[in-house]
Amino acid sequence: MSASTALQGRTALVTGATSGIGKAIAQNLAAQGASVVLHGRDRARGEAMVKEIETGGGSARFITADLTDAEDTLRLAAEAGAVDILVNSAGLYEFAPTAASDAASFDRHVAVNTRAPFLLVGALAPGMAERGQGSIVIVGSSAARMPAPVGAAYGASKAGVEVLTRYWATEFGPSGVRVNTVSPGPVHTEGTRAMLGEHIAMLDKTSARGRAGDPGEIAEIVSFLVSDASSYVNGAVLFADGGELSALPS
Q: What's the superkingdom here (predicted)?
């Protein structure tokens, strides 16, 4: 990742910015010159991220918020203020069989993975539309199209943002605001390592590419989607899964 000024003068809000894919996205946007508003749940990690970005010559500030709480999510939008870029990267995944899950687990998935982007777009996209430009990216998941024996609530919540992306592209596109989703396949992150433990090598076996992805690879795609280089890309769901979906029988 090399520094540039492609996003100079723009402000970006990145949810889930203190770990995994969200952290890589925030770092990349800052390296492209954007002033980044970092969201996370851990203040110490958030402040460490701010220091890291500022040490590298970038601009950042941190806001903590609980995305399972609708009011707190709207407070995040209010404190972020006018932004040019919104990246909904925060995600919750609790992989369990349906019978071993409950209503509270389902509600948590929907709250973080689907409702939070809905509320943030509703709060921030109108301001972008008034200014005549803006870019919104949602981090989805190939799980929306790749069913498995576990994780039905997660897959459903991620499928929801694909539908929202198409609606928002139609709603806000005429005002100069683009909305797209990038859906990663298996990616090596702190979360996947904690979830899979000694079975982490399984990630590499699930990809047609022969390896799992790196958070930085997803961050580069997001940087493209929020930049002027993708000015005619709107309402797209871009799969970054190493060929996982294309390897399925037709």
A: Bacteria
